């Protein structure tokens, strides 16, 4: 996806365009020291270092940022935030990028977005994760029968060890629905 295509998608969702501006502002004190990259426990799995990603963001090269999976691999450990010599809120900025990529429904992040949706729906419904139900929701949303097959042996092993407890899904707004609504109101 090139810069024009990303810009068009952002223009169609002004709230997300504003969000990108906010995230850029969050990191505009970056001095490119590389401490965040050197501190990140997930660096080996990233296709671009966090330092480089912040540089692209500050240069307005959003297409480079969203061509990378780096921000989706952030596990919110907060080490970079604690160690950044400029005190920048890097973990929040990473989370912001995930929010934008999911809201824009960018194809490279489809699986991450669907997994996140299934996870959050479980939390809203029960206040905790019911693994079987969450993964069923995820697989149904994927609409790709071969992907669940890849998890079949792990599922069988977990069932044998009595680690999975299939239950009928609950209906209704969910245990934490009021908290979710409050959070949505605060975001608006
Ligand atoms: S640690 Fe902070 S100042 Fe250093 S490169 Fe990362 S974001 Fe920039
Ligand atoms: S908060 Fe995210 S980006 Fe920062 S060090 Fe931890 S995993 Fe890496």
Structural commentary:
The protein folds into two domains: 3-105, Alpha-helical ferredoxin (Fumarate Reductase Iron-sulfur Protein, Chain B, domain 2); 109-187, no CATH class. It is built from twelve helices and no strands. With 188 residues, it is mostly helical. The protein has helices spanning 3-12, 14-26, 35-39, 50-58, 62-65, 79-83, 90-103, 110-126, 131-142, 146-149, 152-160, 177-187. It is globular and about 50 Å long. Helices cover 60% and strands 0% of the residues. It starts with a helix and ends with a helix. Helix 8 (110-126) packs antiparallel against helix 9. Bound molecules: iron/sulfur cluster (SF4) (2 copies). One iron/sulfur cluster binds next to helix 6 and helix 7. One iron/sulfur cluster binds next to helix 3 and helix 4.
According to CATH, the fold-level topology of the largest domain is Fumarate Reductase Iron-sulfur Protein, Chain B, domain 2
Average pLDDT over all residues: 92
Strand-pairing-aware structural class: mainly alpha
- Count of DSSP H/I helices: 12
* Cα gyration radius (Å): 19 Å
Describe the global form.
Answer: globular
**Number of DSSP E strands:** 0
Query: What hetero molecules are in the model?
Result: iron/sulfur cluster
Sheet-strand content, in percent, reads under 5%
* CATH level-two architecture of the largest domain: Orthogonal Bundle
Low-pLDDT segments = none
């Amino acid at each position: 996806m090139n810069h024009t295509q990303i810009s068009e998608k952002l223009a169609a969702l002004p709230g997300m365009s504003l969000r990108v501006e906010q995230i850029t502002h969050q990191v505009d004190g970056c001095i490119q020291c590389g401490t965040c990259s050197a501190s990140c426990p997930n660096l080996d799995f990233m296709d671009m270092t966090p330092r480089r990603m912040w540089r692209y963001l500050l240069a307005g090269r959003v297409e480079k940022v969203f061509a990378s999976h780096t921000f989706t691999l952030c596990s919110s450990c907060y080490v970079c935030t604690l160690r950044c010599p400029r005190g920048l809120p890097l973990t929040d900025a990473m989370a912001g990028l995930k929010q934008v990529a999911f809201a824009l429904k960018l194809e490279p992040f489809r699986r991450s977005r669907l997994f996140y949706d299934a996870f959050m729906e479980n939390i809203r419904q029960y206040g905790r994760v019911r693994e079987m139900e969450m993964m069923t929701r995820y697989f149904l949303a994927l609409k790709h029968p071969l992907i669940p097959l890849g998890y079949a042996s792990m599922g069988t092993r977990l069932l044998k060890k009595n680690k999975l407890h299939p239950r009928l899904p609950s209906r209704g707004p969910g245990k934490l629905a009021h908290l979710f609504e409050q959070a949505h109101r605060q975001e608006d």
